[in-house]
Write a structure and sequence with these properties.
about 350 residues, alpha/beta, six-stranded parallel sheet, about 25% helix
Amino acid sequence: MKAIVLEQPGQLDLRDIAAPADPGPNEALVRVNRVGICGTDLHAYGGNQNFFSYPRIMGHELAVEVVAIGATDSELDYAVGDRCCVIPYLHCGDCIACRRGKSNCCTGMQVLGVHVDGGMREAFLVPVDKLLKADGIPVEQLALVEMLCIGAHAAKRARIAPGEKALVIGAGPIGLATAQFAKIAGADVMVMEVNQQRLEFCAEVLGVERLVDARKQPLEQVEQLLGGDLPTVVFDCTGNAKSMEAAFEFVAHGGSLVLVGHVTGDISFSDPHFHSHELTLLASRNATPEDFSWVIESLRAGAINLAPWITHQATPESIVAEFPTWLDPATGVIKALLRFD
């Protein structure tokens, strides 16, 4: 069985591994159709991803087909032969976070493709409660559901009021997902980015009218676009420490900053600025089952034009050579997929 293994930073290999066993109690055997390539995967390849260990089969943005289901008392909305997306967060169900409905930040969280082996392989076993049937969604787009959920969760964390001015810093896939769901939640969204191609994508695909070139006095641009005001909610989706520290300066008095990206080190900020503005600082991690439902409903309703996001696709045989090129902005990648069928 084919599997793509990240042996160590910078070394991706195509291996032949043993096929999975038959599913046990509360397990399902799935055949992998598509795998979305995430910033997490790119950072892991570069050796700068939190919570990651090597070697690892990456892959947590998944579209799969159910092959077999083990004995279970759970009521399932899917059957053998159905295509599903995967909730890749393996939570304990017993810790204080899980008991409060925040399984996305379980104290013992294990994420497929990060803490444990993921879906860059032809087939594997998953818990039955981690599969969601999504009729009517193309298989390519099904592999992007988890990515969209990261943005949906960030938007939900911000508790956006209708018409609220929101700034998304960073227009990588997670930033684009955050901008998309901030708009769906009712925000008046602007996007800041250093890459002109990404800004054009925001305008043409997401319909964002206010665009900020991060290379050219961005604070002044934001104030000009808002008539001298600053946004009351800011999302930093860069995963860049300098950007995250600078993001505090873009938030209006009484506003909120949501850190969606994360870094391996520390970040710092001015306490006088933080207190004088009475800012609310939030982290956003992973997503909840409710976020998955929101994303699936939005896709079914046609609220997202997702087809243009998929710019590159690779096979198991070609991905070892192609993967490193996706780290180069000049490649023009918005979203890349690994195809197993």
